[in-house]
Amino acid sequence: MSPTNLRDEVSAVTDDTFEREVLLRDHPVLVEFWARWCPPCRMMAPVLAEIAGERAGSLVVCTVNTDENPLVTRDYQVMSLPAVLLFRAGHPLRTIVGARAKAKLLSEVDEALRG
């Protein structure tokens, strides 16, 4: 499954929708910055889909295509892909760079949310 096939589980966010879909959310939001040409990004797609399904109601999961959304990519200084940013109340809590197994990613997310 590629990031572009995750529409049912993981929503795509753009420069235009980032504020509404990420910063103004009541729940924490996990955002993956990815690109079509990035093999590790494709590895993260099923992991994110599983997390979105398991944490529905408590964690929003979405993606940003960096090639198509340069403004938000620049604003959050995303330099390497995949980059996963965790937001709460409109503020970034943690940046995780590189592909992760689901258990490792959830461990890092849960640690950041407790802190």
From TrEMBL:
PROSITE patterns for the chain: THIOREDOXIN_1, THIOREDOXIN_2
Top-rank taxon, per record: Bacteria
GO function term, MF aspect, one: protein-disulfide reductase activity
Domain Thioredoxin: 1-114
Disulfide bonds: C38-C41
UniProt keyword Disulfide bond, yes or no: yes
Keywords tagged on the record: Disulfide bond, Electron transport, Redox-active center, Transport
Cross-referenced Pfam families: Thioredoxin (PF00085)
NCBIfam families associated with the record: thioredoxin
Similarity comment: Belongs to the thioredoxin family.
Full protein name: Thioredoxin
Originating species: Amycolatopsis cihanbeyliensis
